[in-house]
Amino acid sequence: MEFKQVVGRRRSIRYYLPFRPVEREKVQVVLEAARLSSRAVNADFVQAVVVNRDDLADEDRESLKTPTTTAQLDLAPVWIFWLIDPTAPRIGQTSLKQLVDVGALTPSHGWSHAYVDNVVWPQVLQPILADPGTAMLVAAVEAGLAINQALLAAVDEGLGTQLTALNATNAKRILGIPDHLVPIWIQLLGYPAEDPEAGGQRPRSPFEQIYFEGRYGHPFERDEMVVEQLKGDGMIMPEAPYPWRKDEVRALSRMFGLPE
Amino acid sequence: MSTPMSVEAIERLASQATVAAWLRAYDAHWEVSQSDAEVRAKLEVLARFCLTCGKEPDELVGWLFRETPEGPRIRLKRRRQVMALIEGFEREHGGRSAGNVVRSFLIHNGVALSAAPLR
């Protein structure tokens, strides 16, 4: 699939074919995409545990649910538990020097082993590590970058996917997750039972309301020719709800015996 | 087989604020206008559940929330109790469709819950 189509067709899928397994190779592609995301300090801010739904005991599966995270967990055959590591920059002194050595961080931009040892490590990374709030903030952003690539890779593989909330305490207990890692999302993978367009692209705030040029509050003016081009490329699609969406959701609810 | 409810009993149930809110919200969300027969059938199921749990609809919804300075908050332990009650109810009184009537009533009154999908 073309990149713009992948971006345009991504939806949070909440109805999956519960009986259709996901090929292991496709799960690996999703993880590979996450591994290659942009990341500060070249550190592993995010790790993951892949779980097959049917390998979990019923009691464990139930204990991972939240009030609105229910049926989709029962329907999606593969779950990826994404784990944030706020201590990831602890390897920074080594990983940054590695980036210098491989030519990613260059002397022409001021980088050297000495700069890492004498400035970045003691004055930037150690203070971040010493402040749990800042460390978590940094880790959350970096993890989000990786997780988003995983989402887009899943779409590119023809899968339905969604990030869904979880009971993190129970996840740590059930999966044996070390204390320093924070379970942040479950990414569900499966083949969609609903139309992959899931009723249309979700409503967004007007472009000029959130993007500015020159200074905050001065809208970045949207060129309608670009918009039309992106519609042609499949990145901008008709906005939800499609006229038949509620009928679709009712039919799915009745098919799976879910409440209306 | 359960005894059909009297018109008075149906009207009394329908007059409860949470029941009226449910029926109104259901129609608005799904963009439908339920027939009297459909509404009556649902109310009969809800009435049977209320007998099972020993609480009227308004009382049941009220029991599931607690007031806080920030507004009403769901009582999670009670919510789990009600979810288990619904599961038992649907096993004994009409299956999943009956259970989902009760779930729908609660959902449209702000009590988030679902059911295990049939698969």
Write a structural description.
- The complex is a heterodimer of chains A (260) and B (119).
- Chain A has 260 residues and is of the alpha+beta class.
- Chain A has one domain (3-193): NADH Oxidase (3-Layer(aba) Sandwich).
- In chain A, 45% of the residues lie in helices and 11% in strands.
- Chain A is built from 11 helices and 4 strands, in the order H-H-E-H-H-E-H-H-H-E-H-E-H-H-H.
- Chain A has helices at 3-9, 24-35, 58-63, 71-75, 92-101, 113-130, 132-156, 168-175, 207-210, 224-233, 245-256, and strands spanning 46-52, 78-84, 160-164, 182-190.
- Chain A has a 4-stranded antiparallel β-sheet.
- In chain A, helix 2 crosses helix 7 (132-156) and helix 5 (92-101) runs antiparallel to helix 6.
- The radius of gyration of chain A is 21 Å and the shape is globular.
- By secondary structure, chain B is mainly alpha-helical.
- Chain B has one domain (7-107).
- In chain B, 65% of the residues lie in helices and 3% in strands.
- Chain B is built from 6 helices and 2 strands, in the order ααααββαα.
- Chain B has helices spanning 7-14, 17-30, 36-53, 57-63, 76-92, 95-107; strands spanning 65-66, 73-74.
- In chain B, strands 1-2 form a two-stranded antiparallel ribbon.
- In chain B, strand 1 and strand 2 form a beta hairpin.
- In chain B, helix 3 (36-53) packs across helix 6 (95-107) and helix 5 packs antiparallel against helix 6 (95-107).
- The radius of gyration of chain B is 14 Å and the shape is globular.
- The N and C termini of chain B lie far apart (28 Å).
- The model of chain B has no long low-confidence stretch (mean pLDDT 93).
- Classes of the chains: A alpha+beta (260), B mainly alpha (119).
- Chains A and B meet through helix 4 and helix 11 of A and helix 2 and helix 6 of B.
